[in-house]
Amino acid sequence: MSVTHTRVEYGGWPNCHRLTNGAMELVVTADVGPRIIRCGFNQGPNLFKEYPEELGGTGEPVFRGRGGHRLWTAPEHVNLSYPADNHPVAIQPVEGGLIATARPEPETRLQKELVIRLDADAPKATVLHRITNLNPMTVEIAAWTLSLMAAGGVGVTGFPPRGTHPEVLPPSNPLILWAFTDLSDPRWIYLRKYLALRQDAALTSPQKIGHFNANTWGAYLLDGEMFLKRYRANPALPYPDFGASFEIFANEAVLELECLGPLTKLGTGETLELTEEWSLHRPAHIREWTDAELDRVLSGLIYPTFPF
Predict the structure, then answer these.
(1) Sign of the C-alpha dihedral, residues 88, 93, 99, 104?
(2) Residues 197, 247 contacting (CB under 8 angstroms)
(3) In degrees rounded to 5, what are phi and psi of residue 115?
(4) Is the pLDDT of residue 8 over 80?
(5) Which of 66, 102, 213, 265 has a CA 20 to 30 Å removed from the CA of 160?
(6) What are the DSSP calls for the chain, one per residue?
(7) pTM greater than 0.85
(8) CB 112 within 8 A of CB 130
(9) What Rg value do the Cα atoms of the chain yield, rounded?
(10) If phi over 0 gives left and psi between -120 and 50 gives alpha, with beta otherwise, what is residue 96?
């Protein structure tokens, strides 16, 4: 197989770019963004969320969710994390993919860029996220990468390797809650090695939990298919949100798999980066929510065989 790159109309946007290797398909918007609006098996359903009422729009003065995968900055702040990314994006073809570069944000003087490459032989992709500081002063920020998943599935993440008491006495990782987090909510699934969250249109209260794992990963299972993203975090560096490298969020419309990079002091003209490895898998069916069953489905895909 080889990667093909074509210009297509998608969701009412006339200028989108489709990448496919015959197994996996990505669609990147050029009229707004940078944003990957579609991710799925070739000619299969979109595993990313789409907000139909916001597709095809451009030039709006305020932020629009739209769906898909996007790049923000953390810590979250109403005046800094929600710039109106509703303007054309420069697309540069590269071997196996493309580079999508947004205009500098007037609100933040930051410039965001996605470098997207598909594997030539398998349903895998690499997404490099870049943020460049164009302010005349140093800023301290972290990359925050949000994959908005289609409704009706279950998001899963995993903790660092577990141990026993008293053989392993130090704590292994933080578990981070928000003021709206409700641990009694029936969408949560708590296991020894894994944490899962169901997306349910009937339950409207938002839920969110974060944690840190050097081998950061999040998966989403929907209708027998699984999207998996992974990234290598550095435990020697500070992370936002009480030390989170991963966060999972859901409300009645969407579930989000969110990776966070380390807090970085960026001088004028400097750039930070975060690279995620994506892959699609099928069939992926969970028969029961147990550690053993998730081990079966995720065997060889996550820790300890992490690729970095």
Answers:
(1) negative
(2) no
(3) -110, 110
(4) yes
(5) 265
(6) ---EEEEEEETTEEEEEEEE-SSEEEEEESSS-S-EEEEEETTS---B-B-GGGTT----SS----BSEEEEEES--TTTS-----S--EEEEETTEEEEEPPPPTTT-EEEEEEEEE-SSSSEEEEEEEEEE-SSS-EEEEEEEEEEEPTT-EEEEEPSPP--TTT--S----EEE-TT--TT-TTEEE-SSEEEEE--TT--S-EEEEE--SEEEEEEEETTEEEEEEEE--TTS--HHHH-SEEEEE-SS-EEEEEE---EEEPTT-EEEEEEEEEEESS---SS-SHHHHHHHHTTTSTTS---
(7) yes
(8) yes
(9) 19
(10) left
Q: Which CATH number fits domain 4-298: 3.30.479.20, 2.70.98.10, 2.60.40.1930, 2.40.50.100?
A: 2.70.98.10
State the pLDDT at residue 234.
97
pLDDT for residue 80: 80
Distance between CA atoms of residues 143 and 213, nearest Å? 16
Report residue 55 as tokens. 């597709």
Three-class SS string for 231-261?
Answer: EECCCCCCCHHHHCCEEEEECCCCEEEEEEC
CA distance 246 to 155: 12
Q: How many Å apart are CA 101 and CA 115, to the nearest integer?
A: 9
- Dihedral sign, CA of 48, 75, 158, 308? positive
Cα–Cα distances in angstroms (integers) from residue 23 to residues 46, 125, 157, in the given order: 13, 11, 25
- In the chain, what is the greatest distance between 2 CA atoms, to the nearest angstrom? 61
Say if CB 32 and CB 92 are below 8 A apart.
no
Cis peptide before 75 (omega within 30 of 0): yes
Q: What is the pLDDT of residues 184-241, one digit of tens each?
A: 999 999 999 999 999 999 999 999 999 999 999 999 999 999 999 999 999 999 999 9
Q: Which two tokens stand for residue 260?
A: 């966070």
